[in-house]
Design goal:
The protein has about 240 residues and is an alpha/beta fold. The protein is about 40% helix and about 20% strand. The longest helix is centred in the middle third of the chain and has 14 residues.
């Protein structure tokens, strides 16, 4: 971690107008790297936040459940319980406190996983302290949402926060790949999605990827959500329709 990028703002005077909007805002930092956690607590307190710190996943989850925070900064790699599991559990409990995830994992799928688990924002390490503050201000301005967006096509419902899928109110158990395929199609409901697009975005295809993998998983998915919910458009691709 390039700590100089993080700590430089500790000695930077806050702009009075922006700082006033943060005074009294309650913030939880869940970070197991003690020096970084201390730097964040000092710098954010200087900006007007009221800051609590937890050093592991279980402790962070407990505080987030009961602390009445305005926002949470949550590391991904934590002892006891990962940041992904913490935010997923909060959302499963219908706790919608705004969460900004911090992680050294900077791949696009890592960031997508964090957001799909229910996080509101994702910032990679090393990060700019100025950008961190700007994103926190944005989260505080938006406030706590009623709930994250749920995808629905007819009786088929997918909740990205809890990764729960139901059809006509009945739970549908999916593997990780089946879930990824269904989510990609539901985000493009009504549109024909080509096999090539699915290979690129759901499988991140390589020359070693089996050429019929899409057809195989479409078959698996149809058996679980119903053949009427997933159409094949001959020569073009696949389309989710309302069952």
């Amino acid at each position: 971690m390039n700590r100089r990028r993080c700590e430089v703002a500790e000695s930077t005077p806050a702009g009075s107008g922006r700082r006033d909007t943060l005074i009294g805002v309650r913030l939880l930092v869940v970070e197991d790297e003690a020096r970084l956690a201390a730097a964040l607590q000092r710098g954010l307190s200087a900006e007007g936040f009221v800051v609590d710190v937890a050093a592991d996943g279980p402790g962070g989850l407990d505080l987030a459940r009961h602390g009445g925070y305005d926002a949470v900064i949550l590391d991904v790699m934590l002892p006891g319980l990962s940041g992904y599991r913490v935010v997923r559990q909060l959302r499963a409990e219908r706790n919608w406190v705004p969460v900004l995830m911090l992680s050294a994992k900077d791949g696009e799928y890592d960031q997508a996983d964090g957001l799909d688990c229910g996080a509101d924002d994702y910032l990679t390490k090393p990060f700019s302290y100025v950008v961190l503050l700007a994103r926190l201000r944005a989260l505080v301005r938006r406030g706590t949402p009623a709930r994250p967006a749920v995808l629905a096509v007819g009786g088929l419902v997918l909740d990205p926060a809890t990764r729960q899928v139901t059809r006509d109110g009945v739970d549908v158990g999916l593997t990780t790949r089946e879930y990824a395929l269904l989510e990609y199609l539901m985000r493009r409901a009504g549109r024909v999605v080509s096999k090539t697009e699915l290979l690129d975005h759901v499988w991140d295809a390589t020359p070693e990827t089996a050429p019929n993998v899409v057809e195989v998983y479409v078959g698996y998915l149809r058996r679980k959500i119903g053949r009427d919910a997933l159409e094949t458009v001959r020569g073009a691709g696949y389309r989710i329709v309302g069952p």
